[in-house]
User: Which sequence fits this backbone?
């Protein structure tokens, strides 16, 4: 899977993943999820990488992965069964820290997904198509998206790489 900065391709698209994560009795964190879609024209993975931002601090707390489509699609795309089991329910991105906070955010996201699930699935699917279409209209090639991914994967795991770009959007949605 190759993911691309869809905010560059589709600047008019707004984040819509919003929920609260209770950390303990005193602390509840407001979260906005920022989606990164695969824009590789030769790929139909239907997977999203979602960076979960604390609205108050504007910092990314964890990166999750989610696949909205049905199980059979991913098996057909040759994903490993155990991976599919994870990402169709939402899971931590590989190499993410598993701790009480990241797991609490994951649980809140999974809970958010269960509310009006079909509408959300359709929304993810249409945003994915919108990104693919924007990438295509801008003449993105599979190689370009691959190069971008390889250049940024380290930064994505550090959580810092998108902060400047995304912070403005988060401010807008506060
Ligand atoms: Zn893909």
Assistant:
């Amino acid at each position: 899977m190759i993911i691309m900065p869809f905010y560059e391709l589709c600047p008019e698209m707004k984040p819509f993943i919003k929920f609260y994560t209770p950390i303990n009795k005193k602390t509840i964190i407001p979260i906005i999820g920022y989606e990164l879609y695969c824009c590789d024209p030769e790929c139909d993975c239907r997977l999203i990488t979602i960076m979960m931002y604390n609205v108050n601090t504007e910092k990314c707390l964890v990166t999750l992965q989610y696949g909205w489509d049905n199980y059979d699609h991913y098996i057909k795309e040759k994903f490993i069964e155990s991976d599919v089991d994870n990402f169709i329910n939402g899971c931590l991105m590989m190499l993410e820290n598993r701790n009480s906070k990241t797991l609490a955010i994951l649980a809140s996201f999974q809970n958010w997904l269960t509310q009006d699930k079909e509408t959300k699935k359709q929304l993810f699917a249409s945003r994915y198509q919108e990104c693919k279409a924007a990438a295509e209209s801008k003449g993105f090639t599979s190689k370009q998206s691959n190069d971008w991914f390889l250049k940024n994967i380290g930064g994505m795991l550090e959580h810092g790489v998108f902060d400047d770009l995304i912070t403005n959007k988060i401010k807008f949605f506060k």
About this structure: The longest strand covers residues 28-37.
